Amino acid sequence: MDIMKRLSKAKTALVLEHPFFGAIALGMPSVIDDTIPTACTNGKLVRYNPDFIADLTDGNIVFLMAHECFHPMLGHIWRLSGRDPKLWNVAGDIIINQMLVDDGIGDFIEGGLLDKKMFEEGGGTTDGVYNLLSQPKRGVGNTTGDDNTAVGMDINGGIGMDIGEAEGESAEQEQDEAEWRIKVAQAAQSAKMAGKLSVGLERLVTNILNPKVPWENVLDAFLQRCKADERTFARPNRRFIGQGMYLPSRTGEMLGEIAFFIDCSGSITDEDIAQFAAEITKVHRDLIPTKLHVIYFDTEVSHYDVYEPNDELDIKAHGGGGTSFDKLWPFLADNDVDPIAAVVLTDLCCYDFGDQPDYPVLWVSTDEEEAPFGEVVMM
Predict the structure, then answer these.
(1) What is the span of the domain harbouring residue 14?
(2) Is the pTM value of this prediction over 0.85?
């Protein structure tokens, strides 16, 4: 059977067995291209290397076709935004492959990227996995068996770069992305009517059609707003007020001191802390705070670390129990810490927030709760 017939057979299998992906695949023409190593898409069509396809089983081709449909569905082509293209592609592959395996769509291609542990640590999002991959010395592994042990695949593995560059000007790209949301909605409706839209896919479709700003982006924007570019008398340094001296609170182009609070109560999972730790590492590396304070707490402060710009971070849970915020702000004052901002990982399940501090506070919450002051973003 020639290559085009095998691709048509896979597309038919998707239509009959997985109508959500079938509807998407029908709108993406298949093109044979022996100049690429495996397969790739630009969101408008999918290119396949004939030699690569020839070595795959029918189930592998179904998996591959669904995989290529997934990239534009998740906006990978349009959301590169200055990221490292290779790491972004790897992050997308880890997310997509795990979803396809979990939903039993086609047969996973041997040698492809599959890392369930990283998938979970990244919160099941491409942004989360990309941030993990951006950490120094962080590798990628295929995970097999119940213990999720990585078995030796680095970021050079997988089946090759398969995200093509977005074409056209910004306005055209926005139009393409909008059209894809319509395609996703129509495909979901067809699959739902056929009774073949899984709970996981339905949740994914909801997120695609009603996107929220990733909490990591909110954190970055929050810290950028707080960044001190020059000396200011807007808020005198509290360390010297008692001596009758009203001195500027900070100087220079560095970020200034940042305080990160990590709620270690029983309701915060290891995965939550791992995601938060990845963002703290990114802030430490990219924004270079003059000092980075990491405070672990439940009803009391249980552990406290201070990092200089060149220090290596070691972030892990300390403590466990209930949650109270009233001790946090006095703790900083008692330790002569005058941050430009504080960021708190928590579920906000607490009744005692203490007095509002005189620096900005961002609550990164794992639950839909409100805070009496500061900004709140859902993780």
Answers:
(1) 3-209
(2) no
At 269, is the secondary structure helix, strand, or coil?
A: coil
- Domain with residue 237: its CATH number is 3.40.50
- How far is 326 from 300, CA to CA, in rounded Å? 9
- Which backbone phi and psi does 255 adopt, to 5 degrees? -70, -25
pLDDT single digits (tens) 18-60: 999 999 999 999 999 999 999 999 999 999 999 999 999 999 9
Please give the full DSSP string across 286-314, using - where no structure is assigned.
HT--S-EEEEEESSSEEEEEEE-TTPPP-
Model pLDDT for residues 232-286, shown as the tens digit of each residue: 444 554 544 444 544 444 444 568 999 999 998 888 888 888 888 988 998 999 8
Residue at a domain's end among 177, 209, 241: 209
On the 0-12 / 13-18 / 19+ scale of CB atoms within 10 A, 281 is buried
The CA distance from 304 to 312, in Å, is 15
Least Cα distance to 14 among 33, 32, 3, 28 occurs for: 28
* Residue 352: Cβ within 10 Å count: 10
Q: What is the pLDDT of residues 201-212, one digit of tens each?
A: 998 898 888 776
* Secondary structure (DSSP) of 71-111: HHHTTTTT--TTS-HHHHHHHHHHHHHHHHHHHT-S-PPTT
Contact 309, 252 (CB under 8 A): no
- pLDDT tens per residue, range 101-123: 999 999 999 999 999 999 998 88
Residue with tokens 């909801």: 206
Which among 209, 236, 254 is the end of a domain?
A: 209
Give 45's Cβ-side CA count (13 Å radius).
7
Find tokens 């990283």 and name the residue. 118
